Prior knowledge:
The complex is a heterodimer. Chain A is 33% helix and 27% strand. Chain A contains ten helices and 14 strands. The longest helix of chain A is centred in the middle third of the chain and has 16 residues, at 171-186. The two termini of chain A are 35 Å apart. The mean pLDDT of chain A is 93. Chain B has one domain (32-57, 80-240): P-loop containing nucleotide triphosphate hydrolases (Rossmann fold, 3-Layer(aba) Sandwich). Chain B contains nine helices and ten strands. In chain B, strands 6-7-8-3-9-10 form a six-stranded mixed sheet. In chain B, helix 3 (96-106) crosses helix 4 (111-124) and helix 5 packs parallel to helix 6. Chains A and B meet through helix 5, helix 6, strand 12 and helix 10 of A and helix 6 and helix 9 of B.
Amino acid sequence: MPSVVVKNITKKYTQSKKEQPIIALQNISFEVEKGEIFGIVGPDGAGKTSLFRILTTLLIAEQGSATVDGYDVVKDYKSIRQRVGYMPGKFSLYQDLSVEENLNFFATIFHTTVEKNYDLIKDIYSQIEPFKKRRAGKLSGGMKQKLALSCALIHRPSVLFLDEPTTGVDAVSRKEFWEMLKRLKQEGITILVSTPYMDEASLCDRVALIQNGKIMAIDKPNSINQNFGKKLWAVRANNMFGVLKTLKSWQEVFSCYSFGENYHVVMKDDDNANAMAIHDYLFKCGYREIEIQLIDANIEDSFMALMHTENEK
Amino acid sequence: MKNEPVIVVEKLTKQFGNFIAVDGISFEVNKGEIFGFLGANGAGKTTAMRMLCGLSIPTSGKAKVAGFDIYQQTENIKKNIGYMSQKFSLYEDLTVKENINFYAGIYGLNENQIKDKINYLVHHLHLQHQQNTLVKALPLGWKQKLAFSVAIVHDPAIVFLDEPTGGVDPVTRREFWEMIYDASEKGITIFVTTHYMDEAEYCNRVSIMVDGRIEALDSPKKLKQNFECVSMDEVFLKLARKATRSE
Lengths: 313, 247
């Protein structure tokens, strides 16, 4: 049995009778297997938080159904609340309680004790244990994150929902956080994690790419990239900003996006596209030190290509 | 890029009690340069940036921003810089036009200049149909572009961008960087922090702060060569892992 089943979920927010409702989720369906790390990847406003709130029984969808651990998110909300862990995007612990008090509080609420499940949180909690008498509100961002994760885990949930746990977190801490998730996966916990950072998609078993309330693709990260379906060129030369303007205004170019020190370029006539033609054009336009390489698409390439396809619809 | 420094920092230090948030940093930023200011959370970026913006007085050291002293001439600094953070400074309950009008007014533009600015920006940002729309109804990406435009509405010498692209979709993130390049071509110096390491590659030069000190400062190309890394991501990890403190 899959851990999470989402069927045709639609969520709308109505602001006033005059205005059109905002559609946060449009007919979303997917399944998450037990023990999987499933990523919901998309920008702010894509619908990630709405989806998490529906699955954690904090919000009711207009249409569709969903189950978590076999329980219906509407009918069996009490059972779900006992068995899921939820770490919201916004820090939601008690700021005026100490680190230790927060953890004890959550353990008690779930009819368990810190001792009983300490082994599960040991890795994470031991890093903030030296500050256990400190009020949660006085912790740094990284420590708050670790405390929130400890509290979400203290009742040994079967499914863990993490809403943008790494937003605003630096590259080093992000790496550490994902290493923690890998260890939790080994405990058999199913993890749903949302992120606006495209590069984190590759750390998930499977991902759903979400934009404007719609899922554009669901698959293993590699499979999504293999479906890119067009030749992709990494291009660079002297005067990079000039190259961008030149390529963007060249009618043969389908898309051109900056990626670190290169531009990733797709040509309109994909079948006949070749590095020589791009090189010659840039050379003719006065650029030198031109380097062009055929490359594999990454998740960000795929995401932008899918956005383009959605816009065409 | 002319070698015309608009930010000159010498041994700048800020201490809170026993804690040295910024520990004797020195660097220069040239006119029109895109300068990436990187560091792990807690490395001291925000504290350093607040000093450069005239919002916090240093414990010791010297710095001039747009030619003004950061101890004595903080008000002049504020007039000559722009600032944009991830938390938008736009007023959600004002329209696009009203926001531009408000900020242009605050920065002392006269009525005619304001009129011209509104016209120019509304066209430039393709917001002709949204000029009377409340900002809260705009998509995130548009808000971000508008916030940037408003931050440079007075053609400042320098604009400080504190994680300007957090949470936007990848296309908008790139469009945003094109606006940064445009501003830089007009001679506006860009001082930018980001957690996206690919964006570090878009900067002319990048500094990486670790535990209050600048551990590395160079062009992305040179940094990668010096640290024998293929990407800025690797360079950053190599340096930031040495950190002994967090926030």
